Amino acid sequence: MVLTGAGGVGKTSLAVRWLRSLEEFHPDGSLFVDLGGGRSQPASPNGVMEYFLISLGADGGKISSDSEQRSALFRSLTYSRRMCVLLDNAGVCCTIL
């Protein structure tokens, strides 16, 4: 799902409320990150992935700096989990077909 609108209208609040109301459908938890799309220095994809991996229990000292390896580890750690991922403040709008 994608929520769009002007800043300050309550998109994050709505998304978090919706996420919490559906906890039964993601019993293994949820991940939330502010991508910082409105800031001059948004979150880096590699940094976000490291945050997620550590949140999922990966040893921070053993996480590869390679983005493809991080993505593969993320997929393996979430493969059998029923989770929701909330990405807030994405700076680039995209079209979903």
What features would you describe in this structure?
The protein is of the alpha+beta class. It contains three helices and two strands. It is flat, with a radius of gyration of 15 Å. Strands 1-2 form a two-stranded parallel ribbon. The mean pLDDT is 90.
**Count of DSSP-assigned helices:** 3
**Numbering strands along the chain, what is their spatial order in the largest sheet?**
1-2
State the assembly state of the protein chains.
Answer: single chain
What shape does the CA trace take?
A: flat
Overall pLDDT level: 90
Percentage of β-strand residues: 5-15%
Structural classification: alpha+beta
SSE string: HEHHE
Using only CA atoms, what is the Rg? Answer: 15 Å
Share of residues in helices? 25-40%
Q: What is the CA–CA distance across the termini?
A: 12 Å
How many beta-strand segments?
2
List segments where confidence is low: pLDDT < 50 over at least 5 consecutive residues. Answer: none
Largest sheet: 2 strands, parallel
Concise description?
This protein has helices at residues 11-21, 45-55, 67-78; strands at residues 30-34, 84-88. With 97 residues, the chain is an alpha+beta fold. Strands 1-2 form a two-stranded parallel sheet.
What topology emerges from the helices and strands here?
Layout: H1 11-21, E1 30-34, H2 45-55, H3 67-78, E2 84-88
Parallel strand pairs: 1-2
Keywords for this structure?
single chain, 97 residues, alpha+beta, two-stranded parallel ribbon, 3 helices, 35% helix, 10% strand
